[in-house]
Design brief:
The protein contains ten helices and 15 strands. The protein has 311 residues and is α+β, with helices and mostly antiparallel strands. Strands 1-9-8-7-6-12-13-14-15-10-11 form an eleven-stranded antiparallel sheet, with helices on both faces. It has a two-stranded antiparallel sheet with strand order 2-3. Strands 4-5 form a two-stranded antiparallel sheet. α2 crosses α4 and α7 crosses α9.
Length: 311
């Protein structure tokens, strides 16, 4: 299949409407009805049936296997209060003469039969959002939700994918940002980063200076210089204390009979916004680069992963 390049600006569309994604807000029952109308197309998560003792809130990722954020019974109680999906879609003009809108059916069909799949999990303070992006040829379909009850279904040309990826990483407006103690760029041994994070999670901040002292000259800034031991302690402490969210993208080639997971992009949300965490190796040492990023950088971060997928 052709390489998907998200790192360069897309060519201008032929017309304004060609560049605009179509979006529809659907409740869970409406989404299930659309999937049924699309030939029983499977959704990118397992839907637990009421009364199923193994079922959670109905959001088991096919790639990620993580549960939703609401309790089973509460979720089912709310589902029971929603309007009949066929009637509500008909009122909105999404069912005409008994037929579900062709665009909705096509988008759900693409979700079920893609070449490339991105499973995205975003947490910002107490809000968790999940999104599934599926691409094939010149089209992309996405599905996203914050509660497992109402979903946004969207479909658009592949050239618009970078813009849609940036929407995923936008920090909520009600989340205040302020100056951060985490450097805009820092590169450090993975062992140090992991041990310091564990110490802070265990309320053992007193161990951070000890850990920093074991790696003299091993922590670098973005200009090729070395952080002092004190600067390293401050950076590690700030990274642990300020963390207020995360973004994880799991990328896979699902065009064959078996899913092949090929890469993960991870960001962490600190006081002034996002930091990308990029593992790499220098000689035989595993290291991690931490750098400040903006929502619009997500596509560029994913570009190497998708290039590997598309080979």
């Amino acid at each position: 299949m052709p390489t998907i390049d998200l790192s360069t600006p897309p060519p201008p569309p032929d017309g304004l409407l060609d560049a605009l994604p179509r979006r529809a807000a659907l409740t869970m029952p409406e989404l299930l009805l659309v999937a049924e109308a699309a030939g029983g197309a499977p959704l990118p998560f397992e839907v637990a049936e009421p009364g199923d003792p193994t079922g959670g809130p109905g959001l088991e990722d096919r790639l990620g296997q993580s549960r939703g954020t609401v309790e089973d019974q509460t979720y089912r109680d709310v589902l029971g209060t929603l309007h009949d999906p066929r009637s509500s879609l008909r009122r909105r003009g999404l069912i005409v003469d008994g037929e579900v809108d062709e665009g909705l059916r096509g988008a759900v069909g693409l979700l079920a039969t893609p070449h490339l799949a991105l499973d995205i999990d975003v947490v910002a303070d107490q809000v968790q959002a999940k999104a599934w992006h599926r691409q094939s040829g010149e089209a992309v379909a996405t599905l996203s939700t914050v509660d497992g009850l109402v979903f946004e279904l969207a479909w658009f040309p592949t050239s618009s994918w970078p813009t849609e990826l940036a929407r995923v990483a936008v920090v909520p407006e009600d989340l205040s940002l302020h100056e951060s103690g985490v450097p805009a760029r820092v590169d450090l041994p993975y062992e140090l980063a992991d041990a310091a994070a564990e110490a802070l999670r265990s309320s053992r901040a007193d161990l951070v200076p000890v850990l920093a002292g074991r790696h003299p000259g091993a922590v670098h800034d973005g200009a090729g210089g070395e952080l002092t031991e004190v600067e390293t302690q401050r950076a590690l402490s700030a990274l642990g204390a300020e963390t207020r969210g995360r973004l994880r993208v799991l990328a896979a080639d699902v065009s064959g009979p078996e899913t092949s997971v090929v890469g993960v992009v991870s960001w962490v949300l600190v006081a002034d916004g996002w930091r990308a965490l990029t593992p790499h190796r220098v000689d035989d040492q595993a290291r991690v680069a931490v750098r400040r990023v903006e929502p619009g950088d997500l596509a560029a971060d994913l570009a190497p992963v998708l290039a590997e997928v598309s080979r």
